[in-house]
Amino acid sequence: MSQQAKDVRDGPPGALEGVRVLDFSHALAGPYSTMILADMGADILKVEHPGGGDRTRRYTDGDENFSPYFSSVNRGKNSLVLDIKQPAGRELAHRLVQQADVVVQNMGPGVAERVGLGYEELSALNPRLIYAVVTGFGRDGPWADRVGVDPLIQALSGSMSIVGEPGGSPLRVGYSVVDLVGGLYLAVGMLGALNERHTSGKGQLLDISLMEAQMALMENAVVRYLATGKVPQPVGSAHPYQTLTRAYEAQDGWVMATLSVRNFRAACEVWGHREWLADADLQARPETRTEELVPELQKIFRTQTRQYWIDKLVPVGVKCMPVNTIAEALETPPIVERGFIQHTEDANGRKLRIAGSPLRLSRTPGRVRKAAPVLGEHNRSSLREWLGMGDEEYARYEAQGIFKQVDPKIRGFW
Amino acid sequence: MSQQAKDVRDGPPGALEGVRVLDFSHALAGPYSTMILADMGADILKVEHPGGGDRTRRYTDGDENFSPYFSSVNRGKNSLVLDIKQPAGRELAHRLVQQADVVVQNMGPGVAERVGLGYEELSALNPRLIYAVVTGFGRDGPWADRVGVDPLIQALSGSMSIVGEPGGSPLRVGYSVVDLVGGLYLAVGMLGALNERHTSGKGQLLDISLMEAQMALMENAVVRYLATGKVPQPVGSAHPYQTLTRAYEAQDGWVMATLSVRNFRAACEVWGHREWLADADLQARPETRTEELVPELQKIFRTQTRQYWIDKLVPVGVKCMPVNTIAEALETPPIVERGFIQHTEDANGRKLRIAGSPLRLSRTPGRVRKAAPVLGEHNRSSLREWLGMGDEEYARYEAQGIFKQVDPKIRGFW
Question: The CATH number of the domain where A51 resides is what?
Answer without folding.
Answer: 3.40.50.10540
